[in-house]
Amino acid sequence: MKTAYQQFISREAKLADLPALVALEQACFNSDRLSKRSFKNWLQSTQRIFMVLEQGAEIVGYGLVIMRKGTRLARLYSLAISPTMRGLGLGKQLLIELEKQSVAVGKLFLRLEVEKTNQRAIGLYESMGYKVFGDYKNYYENNNDALRMQKAIRHYSNFSRLPTYPWYQQSTDFTCGPAALMMAMNSIAPKVTMDQKTELDLWREATTIFMMAGHGGCHPLGLALAAEKRGFSAKVFINQALPLFTAGVRSEHKKQTLELVEAQFAAQALQKNIQIETAEFELSVLQNALENGGRVVSLISTYRMDGYKVPHWVTITAMDQDCLYFHDPSVPDGHVMGFDCQHIPLAKEDFIKLSSYGKNKLRTALVLYPNFLNTSLD
């Protein structure tokens, strides 16, 4: 696909462009440069949009957008225009092309980070509708700060401002539940500490002991009990009766142990008057909870995101007419940063599929409220 901008031609980048891309990177940036190896990896990746801008046989610009699989989020990873070609509007034209192609593959939002001192770039992004929604301290190699910016590239989204919401990266492969719960609790009561000690304490309280071949994952009732212990009111939604996580457990001993743990959780939840709704529930129930001051922690399947059928807890941060947004405590690979794991947008119909786990299509979520009878949250 080629588009002419006067004497300039945009096209998809190819492996033969590698030497020219490296040379352009050297000319455009003094630090935080993409390496030859990084360029090669992205040229061969399927999770990207990679365009170059040519004048004759010379590459005078490039734009790289990377995509989070299974979500509607794309990220402008790098945009470069040759110093000799600046001031001609080429950056804007290339960005428009990248946005169009991102929309064509179903993305709703494009995010980026930009150095706070780079007024030229900030001016470009602001002129194209990008809004600042956060910042990173000491983000670059020179220790300069970065602004986080975002634009709804599909016009139907009405969500104009993302809420302030804490984010925490899980420190182990098996503590997504505690990490998600800490984010929800801290958003209600900032005095709740988000650290590894609290994360592991929560996991010990909420784990099901076994999960597939590794450490136990957290049960919705276990997480609710852990939240109630810390002064929060909790309500649990589960679309099926217990037991929940025994389908993939082959060992009869492990299966019996899981069922015993679940029975203990259920008895404790009854004793603590934790509300449990065992029925199919609509996404509107969770949206209503958010609109009334609740915080939502939801179980999803990671299959659509990373190809693995693993149950994973996330924190739903907001909803609008068309989209749902969530904080993911897991940073999946070296190309994705914490920035990309916050307020991840999904079309609501996509989340319905994402939140269904296993052959039995388990759907479960936990709603937290401040317990107004407990002053320890103040």
UniProtKB/TrEMBL annotation:
Q: Which domain of life is it from?
A: Bacteria
Cited CDD domains: NAT_SF (cd04301)
Alphabetized InterPro entries for the sequence: Acyl_CoA_acyltransferase (IPR016181), Bact_Acetyltransf (IPR050832), DUF3335 (IPR021770), GNAT_dom (IPR000182)
Q: Where is the N-acetyltransferase domain?
A: 8-154
Q: What is this protein called?
A: GNAT family N-acetyltransferase/peptidase C39 family protein
Q: Where is the signal peptide?
A: none
Write out the entry's keywords from A to Z: Acyltransferase, Transferase
